[in-house]
Predict the structure of Lipoprotein.
Amino acid sequence: MKKWILPLVLFILLAGCQSEEQEIHYIAKSEHWKAIYHNNTEEGLRLYYLGDSHDLGPLQITIEGTKITQSLDDAHLNKEGYYSFTKKESEKMFKRDAKPIIHMKWQAKSETLEVKNH
């Protein structure tokens, strides 16, 4: 019986010390854009163009977070048809219960995506 006590106590201590990180998942969709962010992936926020991305031209992207705003004036989609922020950039904006707003401008058009936590 005594040889079970020490491993049991160690197991309880180790299990109690582990803090499980909560998963954060955001998604938004407008007529021409879709935004996806998961905190448990290697990429950060991804912005997908839902139309034909051929010759889309430079994008102006503004993300309004709770305490910080980030703007890009000459962003371009990659060959897969989306723009990706780094994980480090995204983590600043996409905290639990944050409600960031993404403003997209391209080819004299503009749309706003209201991001929701799922």
Q: What stands out?
A: The chain has a mean pLDDT of 81. The domain at 21-117 is CATH 2.60.40 (Immunoglobulin-like). The chain has one domain: 21-117.
